[in-house]
Amino acid sequence: MAMISIVAMDKKDCNGNTKLESNFAVMEPYDKYFALRRRRLAKIMTEFQEYLTERATHLLGYPLNLNFNHLMDLSPLLLFHINNVGDPFKESAYGLHSKEFEVEVLDWFAQLWEMEKDESWGYVTNGGTEGNLQGLLLGHLCKNNCTLQERAAADGILYTSRESHYSIFKAARMYRMECKMIGTLMTGEIDCDDLRAQLVLNKDKPAIINVNIGTTFKGAIDNLDLVIKTLEVCGFSDDRFYIHCDAALYGLITPFLGQAPKLTFKKPIGSVSVSAHKLLGSSMPSGIHMTRKKYVGVLSRNIEYLATVDATITGSRNGHAPIFIWYGLNIKGYKGIQEDVNKCLIRARYLRDGLRNAGISTMLNEFSIIVIFERPLDHEFIRHWQLSCVGNMAHIVVMPHVTIEMLDDFLDGLVRKRSVWYRHGSVQPPCLADEMGISNCSCLDHGKGLLDGN
């Protein structure tokens, strides 16, 4: 049989960066060519690592912290299949698990969010989406007093802002929940006037509220206290609403900011979801789902052949992730995370000021590390810096791995390319007054709005 090449081929983009183009087909390892195959596989992996290294030096648009070299200490654990099947607080017949580490991680987050240890329950998830699915499922079942089998007949309504993460709307479809999309303010924060109007129209049905502790694109923090007050004004008692907090990125930021709105279980919230791979950093997606122990009964089931109880979305769960989180928390500690948060905030303001000084429309919410600005016209430039874009806007998430040198390099490249895009005046920078406010817009009509210092 003829050999099919599986050697990776490198090409360069217009910026001189590696673009990986490979034949990754899975092929049978014939004995005759085994040694050659191993050498070629090793070559592909080496080239793929080089590609990832180059891409990591230009990651600006997505909320990932790439500073986690300390996790290399844990590489020997890859020799084991570690599976935390079922409830982390329950033993099982399967012995290769890391539930002891998982429980300590959960205790740390329970303290962070001011929840009594004997009242808390949670588990390490695959990331923010799973945490949102788990939290909204609990709210759906608990506020409708139904079992998992009866959920289709439940009539509680989900309220969430239009700038919520797509997983919230995915949950509504999966659980067949009626969903009311609430408007937002210019910042991206939920409009509680619109929320109040929707609640009044549906006072006879339980309310499941998704509160964004940092929206995906603008980094806006919904006013949790105002949401709670709105529910009370509309006549919803504690037993008729459930609040899930999607704190994917900001759940590890706001607790370290003295003036930021407080995320705490001392308020009548039902659950929180946070992504551990974002601010903390990890080589694999992971997160934390935290809720009140009293809610878990609607999902808990005895699994006889595993000799354990399960109340999680996935059942089998990554047992390496809790160890990675536990190790990261021990390496950084509260002080180290605080330093990372402060560094990100300072550099986000540095980027915002640099964009403003260059006459580029930009916005940065209070307590935010997400800088929104005018979308570049060059697709390759967007790809080069891995920018996240919506309409005429792009954003950069200033994570701990994002250095001043990276931001200067980005700014220099953007200013240089803009001088080409808009050279002859036939194309003008877009007006972003409707998206980020007149004072943040630097288009020809509103450019002077920047003089007010906002």
Automatic annotation (TrEMBL):
The keyword Lyase applies. It comes from the Eukaryota. The modification N6-(pyridoxal phosphate)lysine is found at residue 278. Keywords: Decarboxylase, Lyase, Pyridoxal phosphate. One of its GO terms (molecular function) is pyridoxal phosphate binding. SUPFAM superfamilies: PLP-dependent transferases (SSF53383). Its cofactor is pyridoxal 5'-phosphate. GO terms for biological process: carboxylic acid metabolic process. Belongs to the group II decarboxylase family. This is Serine decarboxylase. It comes from Sesamum angolense.
